[in-house]
Amino acid sequence: MTEAAPADLNVDLSGQIALVTGASRGIGAATAIALAAAGAHVVLTGRDTKALEAVEETIFQAGGNATIAPVDLAEPDGVARLASALATRWDRLDIMVVNAAILTELTSVVDIDQRAFNKALTTNVLATQALIANFDPLLRLSPNARVIGLTSSVAQRPRAYWGAYGATKAAFEVLLQCYAQEVEKTSQIRVAVLDPGATRTAMRARAYPGEAPSSVKPPEAVADAVLGLLGQNFPTGHHLALNQPK
Q1: 211 in any annotated domain
Q2: By CB atoms within 10 Å of each CB, which of 10, 49, 90, 238 scores lowest?
Q3: What pLDDT was estimated at residue 243?
Q4: Per-position b or e across 135-150, b if 16+ CB within 10 A of its CB
Q5: Tell me, what CATH number does 153's domain have?
Q6: Chain segment 13-51, per-residue pLDDT in tens
Q7: What is the C-alpha to C-alpha distance for residues 54 and 56, in angstroms, rounded to an integer?
């Protein structure tokens, strides 16, 4: 694992097709806006159509290009339908940012609600595998494909009462790292895992309700880190943690 170096934000993504999951708000929205500003055509996915439209409008107003694709990744055929729709319009996928996730209630392992845990497993783990499986063919058609997954520190450093969420993120990282090894010698695909650290999001506010939002960085700082990664020739399997005081 490495810590973040200063990002080179002079990144040109002109002509590239990017998919960002969980793009309706927070880190996903900020990342989508940053990628579009760098020239990519960004496909915005999420469950909240109105929120996606607002992000799309922000991108349009800044002179960028985006397409909304509302989808619930937890639906049995949601990812497959999304991949099929993209394949009818574009002949490849250059960037996939796997950001969508569900935060489970913070509770002891013995008190985990299994219905809520199953929902988180579906979104955070099963949907990730479905994204990889369904978009692998389009990623292989790109001359410089990159997959970036947003994780959490609790995936590698377990913390009391974070067992359910931490377990999903640990599985999330394993899937991405295994995929990184599997495609290393057979494609141009490179995979990176990014731990954003403490960030001013609705998920963070739920987990730390007493925390002053101004005490942690905004989502745009994470978006800059994603953009910085895309401007680097990082080795596949790269794991980056943003340096945070908390």
Answers
A1: yes
A2: 10
A3: 66
A4: bbebbebbeebbbbbb
A5: 3.40.50.720
A6: 999 999 999 999 999 999 999 999 999 999 999 999 999
A7: 5
pLDDT of 2 > 50? The answer is no
pTM here is 0.94
| Angstrom distance (rounded) from CA 111 to CA 114 | 9
CB of 175 closer than 8 Å to CB of 128: yes
Per-residue pLDDT band for 240 (boundaries 50, 70, 90) equals very high
| 141 belongs to a structural domain | yes
3-state SS, one letter per residue, for the chain: CEECCCCCCCCCCCCCEEEECCCCCHHHHHHHHHHHHCCCEEEEEECCHHHHHHHHHHHHHCCCEEEEEECCCCCCCHHHHHHHHHHHHCCCCCEEEECCCCCCCCCCHHHCCHHHHHHHHHHHHHHHHHHHHHHHHHHHCCCCCEEEEECCHHHCCCCCCCHHHHHHHHHHHHHHHHHHHHHCCCCCCEEEEEECCCECCHHHHHHCCCCCHHHCECHHHHHHHHHHHHCCCCCCCEEEECCCCC
Total number of domains constituting the chain: 1
**pLDDT per position as a tens digit, 162-202:** 999 999 999 999 999 999 999 999 999 999 999 999 999 99
- With respect to residue 246, please indicate whether it lies within any of the assigned structural domains: no
